């Protein structure tokens, strides 16, 4: 029979790993979104920006994967069905003859804002080990940086 402390520790472990799995999946989706955006973009500078963001999100996913392994958990290895549907929607919107670069920037901005909200919500709802909290806060700062970059790119397109 487990003690109250053991049960609480186990429940906390489950919550932390569940949250990390969700963020991992979100980062897989974001990476794929940026790869799709890169393929669909017309502007060479936007293609480079999207490539850089795909690499950034791959790095986020790698860091979260590493943390899950350190918690003796098997990380997810792909994105979500919702992410696939979103990429299909982006492909459809950009093929309808509208300004593809503008559509892509709008969709990427929407995705980054959703990621930011998800990270912030998780940090407010759960107490994480210091190392994981530091990682998530660093990701938040980089997501905020990306949001600013997208907004400035929107002004040029």
Short précis:
With 157 residues, this protein is mainly α. The chain contains five helices and no strands. The termini are far apart.
What does this structure look like?
By secondary structure, the chain is mainly alpha-helical. It is built from five helices and no strands. It has helices at residues 4-40, 44-70, 81-95, 100-125, 130-156. α2 runs antiparallel to α5 and α4 (100-125) runs antiparallel to α5 (130-156). The radius of gyration is 17 Å and the shape is elongated. The protein starts with a helix and ends with a helix.
Layout: helices, strands, pairs:
Elements lengths: L3 H37 L3 H27 L10 H15 L4 H26 L4 H27 L1
Helix pairs in contact: 1-2, 1-3, 1-4, 2-5, 3-4, 4-5
How would you spell out the order of helices and strands?
HHHHH
Strand content: under 5%
| Continuous helix count | 5
Mean pLDDT: 88
Total strand segments: 0
Q: If you compute it from the alpha carbons, what radius of gyration comes out, rounded to the nearest whole angstrom?
A: 17 Å
Can you tell me the residue ranges where pLDDT is under 50 for at least 5 consecutive residues? Answer: none
Helical residue percent? over 70%
**SSE class:** mainly alpha
Q: Report, as a whole number of angstroms, the end-to-end distance.
A: 63 Å
Tell me the quaternary state: single chain
- What does the largest sheet look like? none
Q: How would the global form be characterised?
A: elongated
């Amino acid at each position: 029979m487990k003690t109250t402390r053991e049960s609480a520790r186990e429940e906390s472990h489950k919550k932390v790993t569940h949250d990390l799995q969700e963020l991992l999946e979100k980062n897989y989706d974001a990476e794929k979104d940026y790869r799709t955006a890169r393929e669909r973009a017309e502007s060479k500078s936007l293609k480079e920006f999207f490539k850089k963001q795909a690499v950034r999100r791959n790095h986020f996913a790698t860091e979260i994967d590493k943390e899950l392994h350190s918690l003796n958990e098997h990380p997810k290895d792909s994105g979500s069905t919702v992410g696939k549907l979103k990429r299909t929607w982006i492909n459809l919107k950009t093929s309808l003859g509208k300004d593809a670069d503008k559509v892509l920037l709008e969709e990427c901005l929407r995705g980054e804002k959703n990621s930011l909200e998800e990270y912030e919500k998780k940090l407010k709802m759960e107490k994480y080990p210091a190392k994981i909290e530091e990682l998530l806060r660093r990701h938040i700062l980089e997501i905020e940086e990306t949001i600013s970059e997208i907004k400035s790119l929107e002004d040029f397109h």
